[in-house]
């Protein structure tokens, strides 16, 4: 697997010439190859759904449609995005808390395959909506498992959170199902950790979750058809040469899945989309204030919020440009720590903090790697009403001259 890193020549060929550079550039060929590799590693009986919250652009969805089992959505709006991009043939499953009657109606209207229920109240609400439509909703019960879970960047279970039904209340939830004739139980949803970097500990979690799902089903005499183990296959932004060991996870699962085992589903977003895009932004000003060096971009966290949201050092490269069209001297920083900020009227708009750089000048480009997931889609695009970045999608024939970083 390689992290996409387009050359200066590619960037300048693609972007508009009448404005400073600000663009997301996606390599769809790399996305295709990477996704096929992830899917092919899975053992029989396991499926990979793409969580479109990571990047819901229609070009991404259409590229992935022939590869993944289907798409995981978290809102009625995402259902519509998937249907508009791919059509009625795409398999869709829906998760997420704080569901409403409108959401369940959309599930029925758009023929969503299955919905994950996160509370006892929502069991009643889903049943009422299905009854009003003379329909039956296939469901999974999302359980917030008790006890510690493997370390990860984000933990959504094993501790108090707004996600899922407390494992201590699962007996009540199963009893509630008995009075909800318009719901059809098919299994459990056990998405607990996100961005786990260690495949061995993630396999431990998956096997324990699968075991608990079987025990709950056996205790209540339930037909366990599906266990959704969520996502959580991590991307290490600090070490882009360290890739989550999908083969390790798949091997551990392969040993545990016997004939007659429930269908295993994963719903991954970040690991599918992150590696195959960059966010590149031009330095439009430099300055020194109170002894600290700053570089200001034509862009910022309203385009690419991930570094500030996660408070991490995002991987990047500086691309130097020699062309200078102005009559006055070109300003820049040399051999110092530079804080790289955006164009917003807030000191929170920081993408790199006190980064040691040998040289960074007005007109140079800062290219953030691994920007294909949770970048544009989680950013506050219209704060201050600045121009949106260009969003460019490269088919295979256009990437031959690009530099790639082996990981």
UniProtKB/TrEMBL annotation:
Its cofactor is pyridoxal 5'-phosphate. SUPFAM superfamilies: Alanine racemase C-terminal domain-like, PLP-binding barrel. The keyword Ligase does not apply. Residues 275-372 form the Orn/DAP/Arg decarboxylase 2 C-terminal domain. Residues 30-274 form the Orn/DAP/Arg decarboxylase 2 N-terminal domain. Keywords: Plasmid, Pyridoxal phosphate. It comes from the Bacteria. Pfam families: Orn_Arg_deC_N, Orn_DAP_Arg_deC. Belongs to the Orn/Lys/Arg decarboxylase class-II family. This is Staphyloferrin B biosynthesis decarboxylase SbnH.
């Amino acid at each position: 697997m390689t992290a996409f890193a387009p050359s200066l020549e590619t960037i300048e060929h693609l972007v508009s010439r009448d404005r400073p550079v600000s663009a997301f550039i996606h390599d769809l060929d790399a996305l295709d190859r990477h996704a096929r590799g992830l899917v092919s590693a899975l053992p029989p009986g396991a499926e990979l759904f793409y969580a479109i919250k990571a990047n819901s652009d229609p070009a991404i969805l259409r590229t992935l449609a022939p590869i993944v089992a289907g798409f995981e959505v978290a809102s009625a709006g995402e259902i519509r995005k998937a249907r508009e991009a791919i059509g009625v043939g795409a398999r869709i499953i829906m998760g997420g808390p704080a569901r409403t009657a409108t959401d369940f109606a959309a599930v029925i209207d758009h023929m969503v395959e299955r919905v994950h229920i996160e509370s006892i109240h929502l069991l009643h609400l889903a049943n009422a909506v299905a009854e009003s439509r003379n329909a039956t909703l296939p469901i999974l019960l999302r359980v917030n498992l008790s006890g510690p879970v493997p370390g990860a960047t984000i933990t959504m279970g094993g501790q108090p959170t707004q996600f899922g039904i407390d494992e201590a209340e699962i007996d009540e939830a199963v009893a509630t199902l008995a009075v909800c004739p318009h719901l059809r139980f098919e299994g459990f949803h056990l998405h607990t950790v996100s961005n786990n970097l260690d495949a061995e500990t993630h396999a431990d979690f998956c096997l324990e979750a699968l075991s608990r799902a079987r025990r709950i089903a056996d205790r209540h005499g339930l037909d366990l058809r599906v266990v959704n183990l969520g996502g959580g296959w991590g991307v290490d932004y600090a070490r882009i040469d360290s890739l989550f060991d999908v083969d390790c996870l798949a091997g551990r699962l392969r040993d545990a899945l016997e004939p007659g085992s429930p269908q295993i589903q994963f719903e991954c977003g970040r690991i599918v989309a992150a590696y195959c895009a960059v966010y590149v932004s031009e330095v439009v000003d430099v300055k020194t204030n109170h002894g600290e060096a700053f570089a200001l971009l034509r862009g910022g966290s309203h385009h690419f919020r991930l570094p500030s949201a996660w408070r991490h050092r995002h991987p990047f490269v500086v691309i130097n440009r020699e062309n200078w069209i102005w009559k006055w001297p070109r300003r820049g920083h040399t051999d110092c720590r530079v804080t790289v900020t955006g164009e917003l009227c807030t000191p929170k708009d920081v993408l790199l903090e006190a980064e040691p750089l040998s040289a960074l000048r007005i007109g140079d480009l800062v290219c953030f790697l691994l920007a294909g997931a949770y970048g544009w889609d989680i950013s506050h695009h219209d704060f201050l009403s600045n121009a949106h970045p260009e969003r460019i999608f490269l088919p295979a024939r256009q990437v031959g001259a690009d530099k790639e970083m082996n990981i």
